[in-house]
Amino acid sequence: MQSGDATTINVGDRSSGDHKGKAAAAPVAIKASKHAKGGWKRGVAIFDFILRLFAIGAALAATTTMGTTDQTLPFFTQFFQFQASYDDLPAFTFFVIANAIASGYLVLSLPFSIVSIVRPHATGARLLLLIFDTVMVSLTTAGAAAAAAIVYLAHNGNSGANWIAICQQFDDFCQQISGAVVASFIAAVIFMLLVVMSGLALRRH
Amino acid sequence: MQSGDATTINVGDRSSGDHKGKAAAAPVAIKASKHAKGGWKRGVAIFDFILRLFAIGAALAATTTMGTTDQTLPFFTQFFQFQASYDDLPAFTFFVIANAIASGYLVLSLPFSIVSIVRPHATGARLLLLIFDTVMVSLTTAGAAAAAAIVYLAHNGNSGANWIAICQQFDDFCQQISGAVVASFIAAVIFMLLVVMSGLALRRH
């Protein structure tokens, strides 16, 4: 109660000093302008929260799609059964781990996003989210790019290095991993939006 | 001469304002504390500038190291001469383009970084840098991760997909591309630091 009063008075003094200095109507006008400013930042915070929900969907889709790839070809030789799974290739294993970490982080970040909605002027939670979101931009992009490089190789092969394309045989496998890569890139783009929005909301005025 | 005097006075007042809080010197003390805050933000801006110089070095090193890889083996068959170059593999071409773009952007961003040093309270330049730095985090990380996936494959091969390791033959080539990937990851980490520092400097108080 007392701290609330103190805040109003402080704000009143600041803005009257800044703008015109109408002494009589000052506290009400200031309260309103503060509310409007808070409303703008609150809108950003709500959009932040919604984007995080979409990012959870994309990251989880990428993780599960890649994690459940397992295609066994219907023919086999005496020594070898042809089977493709994500853990044959380290890049895909990294992809699954990176997207799983991103999903977990996103769920844990939801409470901080809610704090930003409830208190639009608090900068601590936003700064924390900005730092970790930046790390996650890097992590999800790295996973997606590494997997994309291998997916490209699986589709096209490389004559210079004598690497053959394997997607003629493993067509389902290739479709699944391509979809997972796309989902992960979507998650990375959402993380980039989150970083930029945090920067906007941290801005002074 | 005059500015020199003013500085001396400010510094003197700052220390008295910070430590003891003499009521009589209040307006001066406020000016001084604002000055000190500007100094803190200016320090971040100078560090930002220095980090950009390091990032230019790392990105240029990555670009040139990868762009000049060209190893021809001393033996050849009737039909084929064994040669490895960065443009045999699309991931390496993307790597060179991404790091070249990052180098160019970094050079163009230096004036904006200088604006932040000269005017530590201006948020426009910082916000612009934050947005583009975030994009560059993504671009350099994507290039580095895609190249790293291929480098790993070149070193180790993959038995499941029947891709052979080519680094036994192309040892110089593999050393060069590994070095380029490391340089690019260093550039990506510096970009992440730049984003976080911009977020810190954009913070209100």
Automatic annotation (TrEMBL), chains A, B:
Family of the protein in this entry: Belongs to the Casparian strip membrane proteins (CASP) family.
- In the UniProt record, does the keyword Transmembrane occur? yes
Keyword check for Zinc, yes or no. no
Residue ranges occupied by any Casparian strip membrane protein domain in the UniProt entry: 42-189
Q: How does it sit in the membrane?
A: Multi-pass membrane protein
**Transmembrane parts of this sequence:** 49-69, 89-115, 127-154, 180-202
Quaternary organization: Homodimer and heterodimers.
Extract the ranges annotated as region (Disordered): 1-22
GO terms for CC? plasma membrane
Q: Where in the cell is it found?
A: Cell membrane
Please give the organism: Tetracentron sinense (Spur-leaf)
Q: Which UniProt keywords apply?
A: Cell membrane, Membrane, Transmembrane, Transmembrane helix
On the tree of life, the source organism's domain of life is Eukaryota
| InterPro entries according to UniProt | CASP/CASPL, CASP_dom, CASPL
Compositional bias per record (Polar residues), positions renumbered to this chain: 1-10
| UniProt protein name | CASP-like protein
